[in-house]
Description:
Blueprint: H1 3-29, H2 36-48, H3 52-81, H4 89-105, H5 112-129, E1 132-133, E2 136-137, H6 144-165, H7 175-206, H8 212-227
Helix pairs in contact: 1-5, 1-7, 1-8, 2-3, 3-4, 3-5, 4-5, 4-8, 6-7
Amino acid sequence: MKNWAKGVVALLLTFTAGCVDIIGFMSLYKTFTAHMTGLTVHLGQDAVRVHAHDALILTATLGAFVSGSVVGRILVEVGLRKKLRSPASPALLLEFVLLFAVAWAGVVPGWRVAMVILLAGAMGVQTAALTRVGSLTVHTTFVTGMLNKLAQLLSHAISLEYDVVRGRHERLHLRPVVYRQVAFIASIWVAYFAGAVTGTATEMAWSVRALFVPAGVVLGVAVFDQVKPLGIEEELRDKGER
């Protein structure tokens, strides 16, 4: 798959994360299921205030996210080792099943926490399913790292323009690549924001069943991966980043 198509998939998955994050927050336990930074802060707050019940739930949610990421990564690596045509599909299909199950069940009294844990697991799986687009490391379930990367690329672009103005035209050929990367990383934030907006609007109408929307997006990505595989062999290069 060409990088542009893989980039579109990354944006769709990021949109999914924004959707799931806000739908789970609004419908279930006021807990984010993709944003582990914010969850960790709340966990620290609950620990200090000795809110044992809430702290336990947040710990379970964090554990589910990490466990989902581990499972997703294992599925990807098994697919790569077995040389499957679409090694990312098992992880994507697992994510779809988890999202679909919660959406299908609706809000079940007494099961809200379990549903939050399932959503966090789904987001963990998604995190592992796609981590690179070309030379860029991409996170589809949280945007803090992406905004930091955007800042780095913008500083690179400014430095590049300064060098060109000073007559160092040998760096001129880097312009298209840098600006494409800036546009793509900025689009990651936009996709997450769009997912949050869509998730809010659909949750207000359908409650937790709004999760059918991101579940459908993930299923569409999995089907697309069968037609035109994501080409995640480059994921093997990430081993040194763990």
